[in-house]
Specification:
The complex is a heterodimer of chains A (399) and B (390). Helices cover 34% and strands 17% of the residues of chain A. Chain A contains 15 helices and 14 strands. In chain A, strands 3-2-4-5-7-6-12 form a seven-stranded mixed sheet, sandwiched between helices. Chain A has a five-stranded mixed sheet with strand order 9-11-10-13-14, with helices on both faces. In chain A, strands 1-8 form a two-stranded antiparallel sheet. In chain A, helix 4 runs parallel beside helix 10 and helix 12 crosses helix 13. In chain B, helix 8 links the parallel strand 5 and strand 6. The longest helix of chain B has 26 residues. The chains are: A alpha/beta (399), B alpha/beta (390).
Chain lengths: 399, 390
């Protein structure tokens, strides 16, 4: 059994996983700045259903950095983010024969970002399926397969291509559990790289989290480190709900040491990256790194920002976020979505609805510009939020 | 003839009709009967099945009963809609019953069926009951989707009926996904993915067919060609209305969709083919008497003569009635009695469905997510109505 720490529990998730029909209440969590990471190994491995019946209790890392791996009993191992995703896939596919992967070039080619490299050799052509370039239909097929009890993982080679499958994702994936009165579950994972890359052009630099966020029934998470990439991928595969996992084109080669033992991350929890006192900075995916870069400058200037990687884009982890706001009273959101209708817009709205009384300053939101991403490098840089802007924003908020 | 020997019929001059009516029963013989389909099958890159269909008197009478029940249900739904008890969209299947009934006769409940929004009768064919159907149409708790789906979202998981879909054509990739799961699990069953002549022009069908053919999935794409995509006639929407040929490298069969025996034969053939060789396309030449939905009178783009002409000459129930009478399997009076029973059954079901209450407001938030594995929230901020966060 793992080295469990007493207090952190997850919004009733633990209880819910053990079959107790928990209401949405959860135990209070302190926003303790002590970096602690808790991992729980899976209980009995075996059939998918045995696992599903409560073998896993998921806990999030409070600080996802080297501390996590350092506490690992056997030292951990270093790998790149795409390898972490791959490890997650391999572990889940070994454990549960109903897990399969659909996507373009995921099989023989090994995946355009190598996330599925070697899987076709390991698991065969029936479980790692090279699809033709037909997003609408292979996403629909994934939903159909999920309705019939498989657990497909559908890869969009670039998230932007999944716009072609929007109808399947919205109407079938998101809504079938509801419109069938609960008869069908859609335990599908839809994943792929998105975000602004290096001069990939407008159509290959899209941020679909803003388009998908209002689809009812869909859960969305964004990974940002090898540790949370592996953990979130595993959790997404095990979830009975449809989950969209947003990866980022520029983060695949991040290197980190992750634990050797099995672990998963909670889908609905945010990650405390850097505890602080002066301002709460909420971010996710690649912008986390811009924020941390800005944080170095801010610390030199005497500021103490609290950085939270929200990870869960739908639903938001308002417990972690709220506790932080209650402490700092100032909020800056840094995201890569467009200003209009982005995740930041919804987050701002949720914070105002829930934590208005705790705010000492208007919530600031730094987002990408409402323009198609240009090709030329300086223009592309100007499209997204840069560390200097983050520093300036914090200085403004903390006046 | 063997069939005649098994008949139970009252010779006219024997005893007072009323007393004997009660003792007499319609034929329930299971002796085989071979009947020729109305027209031969037309095929595309495959040898068509024989025109001679084996059936039994019992089966024919079941066909009559099931189709009459479906017909009656749809007509009753029409009245309920006009009485404003059913709202929104209501797409009726009367005229097309032979497809639902013939298909069901050829397959088992382990095979899967998925269709679009004209799904009430397929739900019944898959074992759905009248009360759940009417309750769902009226948005009540006793409905098959708990009142939350409506006319276009009937499902029956335990009978492998996957709905019930409102977006034209989107169910076909889902159907190929079901077929994928069947192959993945080595089930030796097939999936029938139904769509209309309007949906036949959707790109995702060709995508799904390509993948099904590549991966040799047991998918059977069934085009219920009622010749009108809502208000647009097929010749105005499709350059090539030979839908059974649209599979190109995938075999196809054109079937008289108003002949329940032809449908049964074709579906049996298709299932054997699909499980062994991969996808096949079936085109059912059928017709709907109602308009596209209850908001469409159905007469602005076709003549009343056409509608009544089809009803005269090709009505599926009348065809079976003629067969039954020609083979002396029942008397006209007995069939009329069956129809009366059915009418009462439907009326009773409607009355029972009306008793079911509307869903409770709390049902608004159930089944958005599967509870117990994490998310219990409904929006980005986890709020349910006006609950406060702890």
């Amino acid at each position: 059994m793992p080295m469990a720490t007493a207090s952190s529990s997850l919004h009733g998730t633990a209880a819910a996983l053990h079959g107790v029909g928990a209401a949405a209440s959860s135990k209070p969590r302190s926003a303790a700045p002590v970096a602690r990471s808790v991992r729980v190994a899976a209980a009995a491995r075996g059939s998918g259903s045995a696992r599903a019946r409560g073998g896993m209790v998921a806990r999030a890392a409070v600080a996802a950095n080297a501390v996590a791996a350092a506490e690992s009993k056997s030292g951990g191992h270093e790998l790149l983010l795409f390898e972490a995703l791959r490890e997650a896939l391999i572990e889940e596919m070994k454990a549960d024969p109903t897990v399969c992967v659909f996507g373009e070039d995921v099989g023989h080619y090994g995946g355009s970002y190598k996330v599925t490299k070697g899987l076709a050799e390991m698991f065969g052509d029936l479980r790692v399926l090279d699809t033709p370039i037909a997003e609408n239909s292979f996403t629909g097929m994934g939903v159909g397969a999920a309705m019939k009890g498989l657990r497909p993982i559908v890869e969009g080679m670039n998230m932007g291509f999944l716009l072609l499958a929007y109808n399947q994702i919205s109407n079938n994936c998101g809504m079938l559990h509801y419109t069938s009165g609960g008869q069908f579950k859609i335990p599908i994972v839809i994943r792929g790289p998105g975000g602004v890359g290096r001069q990939l052009g407008a159509e290959h630099s899209q941020r679909l989290e803003s388009y998908f966020q209002s689809i009812p029934g869909l859960q969305m998470v964004a990974c940002s480190t090898p540790y949370n990439a592996k953990g979130l991928m595993k959790a997404a595969i095990r979830s009975e709900n449809p989950v969209v996992l947003f990866e980022h084109v520029l983060l695949y080669n991040l290197k980190e040491k992750i634990p050797d033992e099995e672990y998963i991350c909670c889908l609905e929890e945010a990650e405390m990256v850097r505890p602080g006192e002066h301002v709460t900075i909420l971010t996710y995916s690649r912008m986390r790194y811009h924020v941390m870069q800005a944080a170095k400058t801010l610390v030199n200037k005497g500021y103490d920002p609290e950085v939270i990687d929200i990870r869960s884009l739908k639903p938001f982890d308002l417990h972690t976020i709220g506790n932080s706001i209650k402490k700092t009273h100032r909020v800056l959101i840094v995201e890569e979505c467009m200003r209009t209708g982005g995740i930041g817009a919804s987050l701002r709205s949720s914070i105002i609805d829930n934590f208005w009384d705790y705010l000492d300053a208007p919530i600031m939101c730094l987002s990408s510009q409402d323009v198609p991403t240009p090709y030329a490098a300086p223009l592309e840089d100007a499209t997204v939020v840069q560390p200097a802007q983050i520093v300036a924003a914090v200085e403004q908020i903390c006046q | 003839m063997a069939a005649a020997a098994l008949l139970r019929r009252i010779p006219a001059a024997r005893a007072p009709p009323t007393a004997l009516m009660a003792a007499r029963t319609i034929s329930d013989s299971t002796a085989p009967l071979t009947i020729e389909t109305s027209v031969p099958f037309t095929s595309h890159i495959v040898d068509p099945p024989s025109r001679d269909v084996t059936t039994t008197p019992a089966e024919l009478l079941t066909f009559f009963r099931d189709m009459s029940l479906m017909r009656r249900m749809e007509i009753a739904a029409d009245s309920l809609y006009k009485a404003k008890l059913i709202r929104g969209f209501c797409h009726l299947y009367d005229g097309q019953e032979a497809v639902a009934v013939g298909m069901e006769a050829a397959i088992t409940r382990s095979d899967s069926i998925i269709t679009a929004y004209r799904d009430h009768c397929i739900y019944l064919a898959r074992g759905g009951d009248l009360v759940s159907a009417f309750a769902e149409l009226m948005g009540r708790q006793a409905g098959c989707s708990r009142g939350k789906g409506g006319s276009m979202h009937f499902y029956k998981k335990d009978a492998n009926f996957y709905g019930g879909h409102g977006i034209v054509g989107a169910q076909v990739p889902l159907g190929c996904g079901l077929a994928f799961a069947q192959k993945y699990r080595k089930e030796e069953t097939a999936t029938f993915a139904l769509y209309g002549d309007g949906a036949a022009n959707q790109g995702q069908l060709f995508e799904a067919l390509n993948i099904s053919a590549l991966w040799k999935l047991p998918s059977i794409l069934v085009c219920e060609n009622n010749h009108y995509g809502m208000g647009t006639a097929e010749w105005r929407a499709a350059k090539s209305p030979a839908y059974y040929k649209r599979g190109d490298y995938v075999p196809g069969l054109k079937v008289d969709g108003m002949d329940v025996l032809a449908v049964k034969q074709a579906c049996k053939f298709a299932k054997e083919h699909a499980v062994a060789n991969g996808p096949i396309v079936l085109e059912m030449d059928t017709y709907r008497y109602h308009g596209h939905s209850m908001s469409d009178p159905g007469s602005t783009y076709r003549t009343r003569d056409e509608i009544s002409g089809v009803r005269q000459e090709r009505d599926p129930i009348e065809r079976v009635r003629k067969l039954i009478l020609a083979h002396d399997l029942a008397t006209p009076a007995e069939l009329k009695d069956t129809e009366k029973e059915i009418r009462k059954e439907v009326d009773d079901a409607i009355a029972k469905a009306k008793e079911s209450p509307m869903p409770d407001t709390s049902e608004l938030f159930t089944n958005v997510f599967v509870k117990g594995f994490g998310v219990e929230s409904f929006g980005a901020d986890r709020k349910e109505l006006r609950a406060t966060l702890p």
